[in-house]
Amino acid sequence: MQSPLLTEVRVSSIDTTRPTSARIYDYMLGGTQNFEADRAVADRLNSVAPFRRMALLNREFLVKAVRVMVQSGVTQFLDIGSGIPTAGSVHETARALDPAARVVYVDNDPTAVEHSRQLLAGADGIAVVEADLTTPASVLDHPETNAVIDFDQPVGLLFLGVVQYLPESLEPATLINRYLTALAPGSQLALTHFTADNFETEMAAAVEFFASTAAPMFPRDRAAVTALFGDLELVDPGVVFTARWRPEPDGVGADDPDRSGHYAGIGRKV
Ligand SMILES: C[S@@+](CC[C@H](N)C(=O)[O-])C[C@H]1O[C@@H](n2cnc3c(N)ncnc32)[C@H](O)[C@@H]1O
């Protein structure tokens, strides 16, 4: 069921004929910000690996991570590689616990940014920044980031389902550390990352699929994902499969938690 707002978004400047990873992901999540071209690619992806399940597990973790952070006093968020903030978004989740929570959404996909801006037009305490995470200054020094985030206070830094698009040559751990260096003590990093651990066949098919696209991806094992947290203090239960991170009885992955396709973790800057 589409709201009138979403119908208006569809007749705007957005190119609906070219699939984008943000809209493909939105379709996986059951969102409304996607079009026929996106759905066709998503259906092909789902035929090579259970991407819908992975996306739902990733979104479950997002909701749990944001709740944990707000409950520990973090009320401002920097969401890097945010995609389109539809159902279960960072701001909805955070504001359900603290209506004054603030969020900066960052993505390098102009269509994801356009969709996000239209969805969030006029919302106080929320900004959408178009920037590439590989140039941290373009995010951290952006005027809209600084209008929303108080860097003297703890920040919830989210890198969910995005670091897998960075090859080792871009030194993802160094990049993440560059963001963490700018944040106050008490800040927390939540990160999820594709993995082939217990998921070799499916992930190999997915890697092959993405290799021919504009967004090739690089799954990492548990040790490599854990290394992305640097010297942060890992929050219980550490870096584990998404379905194993503080599981809830009716969670998406309860039937087969060790085949999540993603690792997840939260680390705290002391
Ligand atoms: C799989 S989606 C994840 C969306 C959201 N973080 C979540 O977990 O629900 C990955 C997003 O990362 C964005 N992205 C990929 N590489 C990026 C980069 N170098 N800088 C900023 N965003 C990037 C894509 O455009 C896409 O919207």
TrEMBL record:
Which intervals of the chain are annotated as region Disordered?
250-270
Pfam families registered for this protein in UniProt:
Methyltransf_19
Gene3D superfamilies from the UniProt entry: Vaccinia Virus protein VP39
Q: What is this protein called?
A: SAM-dependent methyltransferase
- Organism of this sequence: Kribbella antibiotica
